[in-house]
Each structure stands twice: as C-alpha cells, then as structure tokens.
Amino acid sequence: MGFLVIDQLTMTYGQVTALDDVSLTVKEGEFITLLGPSGSGKTTLLMSIAGFNRPTAGEIVFDGRQITGLEPEDRDFGLVFQGYALFPHLSVADNVAFPLRVRKWDKARIRARVAEMLDLVGLAHLAGRKPRQLSGGQQQRVALARALAFGPRVLLLDEPLSALDRMLRETMQQELRRLHRETGVTFLYVTHDQQEALTLSDRIAVFNKGRIVECDTAQRLFRAPKTRFVAEFLGENNFVTGTRQGGRWTGLGTGFVLPPDRDLPEDRSAATLWLRPGDIALGPAGAGEIGFQAVVEDVIFAGTSSGLHLRLPTGEPLVASVAAEISAAEITGKTLAFHARPGAVGVIPEGA
Ligand SMILES: Nc1ncnc2c1ncn2[C@@H]1O[C@H](COP(=O)(O)OP(=O)(O)OP(=O)(O)O)[C@@H](O)[C@H]1O
Ligand SMILES: [Mg+2]
Questions:
Q1: Measured in angstroms, how far is the CA atom of residue 213 from the centroid of ligand 1?
Q2: Which of 203, 231, 259 is the last residue of a domain?
Q3: What confidence tens digit (pLDDT) does each residue in 144-153 have?
Q4: Residue closest to 258 by CA, chosen among 346, 319, 348, 351
Q5: Which one, of 98, 92, 174, 172, lies nearest residue 129 by Cα?
Q6: Which of 74, 193, 261, 323 reaches 20 to 30 Å from 59, CA-CA?
Q7: Contact 204, 233 (CB under 8 A)
Q8: Ligand 1 in contact with 75 (CB < 6 A)?
Q9: Cβ 36 under 6 angstroms from ligand 1
Q10: Pocket lining: 139 vs ligand 1, CB cutoff 6 Å
Q11: What is the distance between the alpha carbons of residues 178 and 163, in angstroms, rounded to a whole number?
C-alpha cells in the first residue's frame, strides 16, 4: 500500500477530459514531479489531491484512508500555488503564523514554530516586514514557510518558481531540495520546465493529454525512455529511422551494431532511433564507435557549446552539440565525419 494512492482518476469539464484514467502511487518522503506541456492535466490532478476538484471517477487514498470526498481543510496538505499570494497586510511572521492561528495553536507554541520556520527558510531577520517589502524569492520562501508551518505530511506545489528569473529559480531549486531533505515531507511538484523536473525530483510523472505517459526516476526517463513523447520532451533529442536485419542496424546513412541490453524489435522491422545532440562528436569513429557523414547546414552559437545543424545522406536532419570554439565559417556547407557511441543510441519500438 502506497502513502498517497491515486487510483484511476478521471476528471471531465464538459467536453474536455482533463484527467483520463490517471493512477499514481507516491511513497512517503518522496519528491515527485508532475511534468508535462500546458493543458496536460497537471494542475487538475494537484487540485484533485488538494480537494478543490471533485473527480468524475476514481479514488484518492491517503495513508490508508479514502479522502476522495473530503473538504480541502480535512486533508491537511500544505499548498504553494503560483497564484497563492501572501496576505499583503500581514507581516512575514503573521503570514507564517496564520495557518497555526486557524488551527488554534496556543501563542507560545505559534511563536516558537514561526521562529523555527523563518530560520528554516533563512528569513528570521525579515520577520517584521510586509510582503511588498520583499523580493520575489523572499516572498516565495515565506509562502513555503507558511505552507510547512503546521507540519503537513504532504506539500503540494504548483509551479511555485515560474514567476522568478532564471538565476533566482536555480537558487530556489537548491532551497527546495534542502527543505525537502530537512523536513522529510512528501513533495508533489508541478512544472512544465523539464530541466527543473530533472534537477529536483526523485521520480517524474510525465503527462500528456490528461494521461501519465511514463513515471520513473529522472535518470531512467532520460537514458531509457520507452515512448517517443518522453524521449522528445525530456532534454534535446534527434530522431532518425532505423531498420534491423540479422542483428545489424541500418540508419544515419550507415550500418552498425547496438548493445544487446534493450528491447529490440524483430528482424527487418523499422524503429525510431534517438541520439542526443551532446552524444554526437565531430571527427572519424574510433574502434567500436558508429561513424557517419553529414553536411553541416548551419552553426548556432549557444554559449558553452554550438549546435551544428546537419543533414544526413538519408535526407534526415540531425543536431550535434559541440565545443563552441569551432569556426562556423570553416565548416558550414562541408560534408564532415561524425561519430557516436553505440550505447548512446536509443530504440523506440514502432507505435510507442
Ligand atoms: N475549470 C475548468 N473548466 C473547463 N476546463 C478546464 C478547467 N480547468 C482546466 N480545464 C481544462 O483541462 C485541461 C487541463 O488543464 P490543467 O490546468 O490541469 O493543465 P496544466 O497541465 O496544469 O497546464 P499548465 O501547464 O498550462 O498550467 C485543459 O484543457 C484545460 O483547458
Ligand atoms: Mg497548471
């Protein structure tokens, strides 16, 4: 039995199916991220868990108890939503104290808990300020302290960092990881930012069109996606067609052998192969590597690396990410040799 079990949840709004038979088992203490494109049902699931939505079908079981029909306040989950603003007229300390006053904690206990929470998020020195006197990152820290103050066992977060700039977002990501580690609370985190999901999560549930496409650790989803959707959504990727005959593959305009440690389609069948831009290197292949030729059509400078936009002999496009020192003028329009490790090539069976 899982700690938080979402069992065959469906939620429709008129003609729209926002959640389509979603099942997910969350372990106690886990940091699990719901990742997916806009409109894929992430917020709908989080709102259903929080109790603001009534699912059309299915159940939610928390710690062995049916909670599907309970009011939000009877579920006692912590909430940090993007639009869940602080109370502007209350000080930082009073914002954090608010959920404790609602729960009728006594004064001394509230004072001690508020101090503890402000220490936890590093804002003890700003306890007397009003929210408008804080930066965006500081406000988000107050929201986290407020959501964690009453000691919820689950914290639900819906894109809490999306309004912050990139640098601050990265700092806050580290902060969230630390808060998760130090409190031991189970985090359910919604984002459409795949980098954020990879950085933060123990496991990621990838959403598309109201369904969970795959749910696994970030590493397994990144290195061994089972579906084209996940291979495409998580990190940059290239897709080319491959065919297999007698244990040998044809693809990328050449022939090669792939490691036997994966589900391969039957002989002669076509499959989609994937190869990440960072796993393609310039220059001829060494022993055991896959070598192929491609025309460099464009070079896009991207800071520490450059993206080479290539055209294979098969006519298929391919992007390679290489060190930025490369001179665009010298290689654009040329046919060059490239190579990759066989272990870097993934296979998606037809139809997946
Ligand atoms: N109250 C509502 N009434 C009607 N349709 C809704 C309602 N709330 C959500 N939807 C629809 O349900 C689907 C899922 O929406 P949801 O908000 O869960 O997506 P999301 O994955 O959180 O997207 P985003 O990344 O943009 O926040 C969408 O098609 C949306 O238009
Ligand atoms: Mg949303």
A1: 17
A2: 231
A3: 999 999 999 9
A4: 346
A5: 92
A6: 193
A7: no
A8: no
A9: yes
A10: no
A11: 21
pLDDT digits (tens, 9 = 90+) for 152-200: 999 999 999 888 888 888 988 999 999 999 999 999 999 999 999 999 9
Query: What is the Cα gyration radius of the chain?
Result: 25
- Cα 81 to averaged position of ligand 2 atoms, centre (Å): 10
CA distance 31 to 8: 21
Residue 43 CB–ligand 1 contact under 6 Å: yes
- Write the single-letter amino acid at 304: T
Number of domains composing the chain: 2
To the question of pTM greater than 0.85 for the whole model, the response is yes
Residue nearest to atom 31 of ligand 1 (CA): 39
Atom of ligand 1 nearest to the CA of 19: 14
Write out the residue range of the structural domain in which residue 306 sits. Answer: 237-348
Helices (H), the chain: 42-50, 72-75, 92-102, 107-120, 136-148, 166-183, 194-200, 218-223, 228-233, 328-331
